Amino acid sequence: MQQGIQGLDGWVAFLSKADIPVLKRTARELTALQQEADKLSARGVAEVISRDPLMTVKLLRYLQSHKHRSQTSEVIVVEQALMMLGLDVFFSKTPASPLVETELHTHLDALTQLLHVVRRAQRASNYAREWAVLHLHDMRYEEIRIATLLHDLAEMLMWCFEPAAMLQIRAIQQQDKALRSRAVQEQVLGFALADLQHALTTAWDLPELLLMLMDDDQSRKPRVRNVTLAVNLARHSANGWDDAALPDDYTDIGELLRMPAAEVMAMVATDAGVACDLTRPH
Predict the structure, then answer these.
(1) How far is CA 54 from the centre of its chain?
(2) pLDDT tens digits for 55-89?
């Protein structure tokens, strides 16, 4: 494996010190905002950061490691984090660099896969936010959106820092689609990405609420289930709108939102701009 890093503990230690790369678009947009000081606001900066899961966790990790003793509430929402830090501190202490496009310029296949995972996370977070606002009337919908955006953080980080192994995992799974992801990850990496995710969020002292919302084992809780089902829908639909797992997703989402599965399917199809034949048997 690259960099001589071994095992789960080794990767947690490495990633805890690593400078997390961010998307080039994020860096470009933040630079543009910074150059218009008269229009600079926490809300405007937060809108840019919140589209990039890597930049988002970079900010939250810094905030958690520098929080004041007087801070009694957990902060997940990006705009709140910026207001606590101040924009000057944010720009100086958590710069939008390095860039994933630069870091992976010799691994273009891995870069493509990373960008797919990021896009999938963005879509999932949009689903979760929409359901939270329109159907579940969750006033703290932004917490749901951020938790969904960061749900597959460990996968993104490993695409950044261990692209060869991640490509190997992908190749094995493409050869035998019946293999469980966890088994292949343990075979190649020595641990599952879900275990790395849990270990990182604990090591980085990320807010307990965020850990809970990203924990699929607690999916009986409605807010966690919102996150889990949005992630599942984005993951399965990324394989194509004829993916065999989607009918079950529509049924599960319908139970959460108290809607018939056919209505869920129509809603998702409208949001995605795809044509679905609701009369077609599944």
Answers:
(1) 8
(2) 999 999 999 888 766 555 678 899 999 999 999 99
Q: Model-level pTM?
A: 0.92
Cα 34 to chain center, whole Å? 25
Q: Is 205 left (phi over 0), alpha (psi -120 to 50) or beta?
A: left
DSSP states of 256-277: HHT--HHHHHHHHHHHHT----
Query: In this predicted structure, what is the pLDDT of residue 1?
Result: 42
User: CA distances (Å), 231 to each of 62, 118, 174, 272, in order?
Assistant: 26, 12, 21, 15
Cα pseudo-dihedral 141, 143, 145, 149, rounded to 10: 180
Say what the pLDDT of residue 207 is.
86
Residues 6+ apart with CB under 8 A from 52: 22, 23, 25, 26, 118
Whole-Å CA distances, 45 to 42, 56, 93: 5, 11, 15
Residue 216 has pLDDT above 90, yes or no: no
Do residues 28 and 35 make contact, with C-beta atoms less than 8 angstroms apart?
A: no
For residues 204-222, give the mean pLDDT. 86
